[in-house]
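pipeline stage [seq->struct] | target=Transcriptional regulator | organism=Propylenella binzhouense | residues=114
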Amino acid sequence: MGTVTFGVSSPEKADERVKAAFRGEPQGARIDFPSVESLFSVMTSARWELVRRMAGAGALTVEELARRLERDPDEVYADVRDLLSCGVLFSTEDRRIIFPFRSVHIDVTLEAAA
């Protein structure tokens, strides 16, 4: 696959995109977080590096990913588990991990505080 967009979206906006998709309007690949804070809380610098290494790499075991990242396998496993739970990574039938995109676009708008 090509590019996925990481963004911030309210449940209402996400629902609007789902309805538009059902009407046949292309939506593109997107992973939304409920707030800017949650995006940057989930996507730590170590997890960004993990995603960068996985982009276009195909399915990998956690052990192979840890070797490529030169990190402790238990720490990588914890990051993978969290990224699986929020839909950033996917698991194959043989328990390998995949990030099926070649690149990430970040779409975040920060507004003035009230």
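stage status: PASS
auto-comment: The domain at 3-107 is CATH 1.10.10.10 (Arc Repressor Mutant, subunit A). The radius of gyration is 15 Å.
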